[in-house]
Amino acid sequence: MRTKWIIFTLFLQPWEALAQTNCSVQLQDLSKDIEALRVEADIPGVAIGAALNGELVYEEGFGFADKLHKTPVTPSTIFQIASVTKPITALAVMEIADKHLLELESSVALEPGSLLANPHHPSKEITLLQLLTHTSSIQDGMYYEVDFRTPGQDSAMKLSELLEDVLLESGKYYSADKSFLKSPPGEQWSYSNMGYNLLGNWAEQQSGLNLKDWTQKNFFEPLGMDHTFWTIADTSGLEVATPYQTLSDGQLVAVAQSSTPGYPAGMLRSTVSDLTKFFGAVANSGVFMRETISSQKVLQEMFAERSMSGIPDHLESQLVAWNSYNYKKRSYLSHWGGNIGVYTAAYVAPETGLALVILTNRSAERPQINMLKELSKKIYDVVERCNTKTAVAS
């Protein structure tokens, strides 16, 4: 394990310097707790990053990126982040809408000049806001029934082809009942990967850029996220975490990375160091280390709570991309991600400027889910007690 942190004590009053020293001790103890939880949950590797008020305060790797070769996880280890991609896609969509002076109630189409409608309610338009909040009435029945994954390499299928095949009546995999709810758009919550894939396609139409290129130019380059990629090919030769899953006999085995054509919903690959910069900016009014990636106006719109029916019991409310919940009388926003061999989470607390990223290389079962929940609370408690001016160095 190699932890990175530094606590500034120069020019501090004696009691402030003492508080910072105590913070350093707490961070060291936190690392011990994280390692114990990792071992208990039998997770091969974990990477943790935390930011506060637009600055990195903690990053560390635990366990192995590859068990066979005993390759340790570091803050520079690349993980597939699964659905933690969605808050990044959502912010890109909202920024594009804002730059083009488009309302979130604008209708969305697969192709310019045509509308996409739920066949059960053909007169009801599907809007950006509905897609962003999983209330569009587009569901993932066919997306899960047809295995669109490509093991070991990037999918050759285009995003537009996926959308046309699943959502258009002329499509190869179209099913009115499996791709659309019976409820009209805007009335029922239903988590939708296909909805986020449609958002990515719409963003490309409006910006004239591939979503991969847009996020690279507007998010990743300004923040120095130089180990964040949309494709498996781009990670070749780099330090990538091997995914692991449990077989029916309980054996934990390595599996190949995989991809789908639906990259806006969950195909990003990144490091905890890079992602903490992005979510650190989201939690800090769009700014990380003096680099701005979003406006206060757009983020306030993203963080507005929306009323809707059908939200499952484990979620308190739905925002744009994010779910909200309360811990110790504070409001936190979260998004989790899962795929074969990976389990990830991102948390932001705009009220306090706190951001947290947790990446693992094992499929989620109950012990791993419980581990992430307990771990997030421990990190919140320590980092918020260290809520003073901080920076990180090797």
Automatic annotation (TrEMBL):
It comes from the Bacteria. Residues 34-365 form the Beta-lactamase-related domain. Pfam families: Beta-lactamase. Coiled coil: none annotated. InterPro entries: AmpC-like (IPR050491), Beta-lactam-related (IPR001466), Beta-lactam/transpept-like (IPR012338). This is Beta-lactamase family protein. It comes from Microbulbifer variabilis.
